[in-house]
Amino acid sequence: MSHEKSVNYVVMMTLYDVTALDVKSTSTYPSDNIKGRSAILNCAWTTSGSEEAGVLNIKKNETNYFTCTVYKTNSYSCVKNVPTSPDRFTTVNGVGNISMTIGTLECLDEATYACQVILFYPSGQFQQADTVLRIKIPPSVPALSIDQTEVIENSNINVSCTATLGYPNVGQIVWKTYQNGILFTPSPSDIIISSTNVVQPGDDICTVRNRSSVLLKTSRNNPNISLACFVINQDFPAPSDDACTNPTAQWCNLTATVNIVYPVSNIQSTIVPSTALYEGDDIFLRCSVEANPLPTFTWTKVDDYRTLTSEMDGLVSVLRLTNLNVSTDPGDYNCTASNVVKGVRYTASRVITLIINKATTPVPTTTNTQNRTVTSAKTTPRTEITTPGLNIEVADTNPDKVTIIAMGVILSAIIVIQFVVILILIRRSQGDCPCTRKLAERKPHIYDQPERPTQYEYINDSNYKSVEL
């Protein structure tokens, strides 16, 4: 919106019936007279018969600014009657008219102007026409004052906006709030707006200057806040826009983005994947926090005071452990996050405990000594991964393959025992056989030993052992 075009205010004044003297008064261009521009007041008259115009006076609120001699001449001469009048007041002569130009309009130029024509003949008769010159003053581009652009959460942002509101119609200051550049409305309980009229040196009597202040409570949930104040005046409509993109045309101003800072908090840790851990596995330890400014992360192995290298992405740090070793990798891992807020360092930490199992496959092993059979299988202990606030328990492992092998071993043992018992019974039933003596004469055989029963004690569902009674 440009306000640089020249503005002319023309007043045509008519001197009415003195005898046949005729003066007309009209306003031609324009109807608005903006402070800082110019206006033209025009006096025009006509005479007839024996009438002769002698003097023309141009007055402002009854003060005679110019006296012009117009008797029997087309080259009128005008004299300034007000010594303090600057060159802003000038006259231009024409045939039957005189115009006065007021340059660089000021608030004090608002007045009633009169064009008075005094007749030379008949002597002493006069007529005048009046016009009122109104001055309009646009709002000013607001000036903003903000106490700080970095605040701790839950504290207040204090912003002041000062502007002239326009004249003769007085406008008002309106506030708008943005988050990440997008218009949003804060909760009424979080914002307080107050305003008062103020006076500054240099203000004229037409100026209405207002100061409006905002107190806005901050929250980490509403980061990157900015505020804008707009002056709204119906005489000077601005482009309709929620954003302050053109301060001069929109009579607005926008603060810088306010950075809301807060210490590290709400630290969380997880293990990926969250299953039982075995030697040779690859895992990630993940640590996250809430903080502004961004924190720094440190990972340490608590057992041996080792500092470990991790990857950081904003508010998250990831520690990668590959090819887990059952001897060196189990234990406590500490994640520490820290940041500095207003010169004070804050820290938060979280511990993850790793329990790592051997990665051996439970395969049964059988050892035979004479008729003693011992069958064993390795059991897998329960694994619990402990993290403060995060407990992950993994159930026992029962592979189907181990169960099938165990059942096969049991059946084989039963068949062998049955075969031995049957063989002994057959030999005993043949005691009168000639072979009886030979059996007595030969050396004792392993099969001649008395039957020794074997019981099986089952352990869990899939692991077992056999013991000799």
UniProtKB/TrEMBL annotation:
Residues crossing the lipid bilayer are 404-426
Q: Say yes or no: keyword Transmembrane present.
A: yes
Entry keyword set: Membrane, Transmembrane, Transmembrane helix
Can you give the residue ranges of the Ig-like domain? 139-226, 263-353
SUPFAM superfamilies registered for this protein in UniProt: Immunoglobulin
Coiled coil ranges (UniProt) are: none
Q: Would you say which domain of life the source belongs to?
A: Eukaryota
- Protein name as annotated: Uncharacterized protein LOC106062144 isoform X2
Species name for this entry? Biomphalaria glabrata (Bloodfluke planorb)
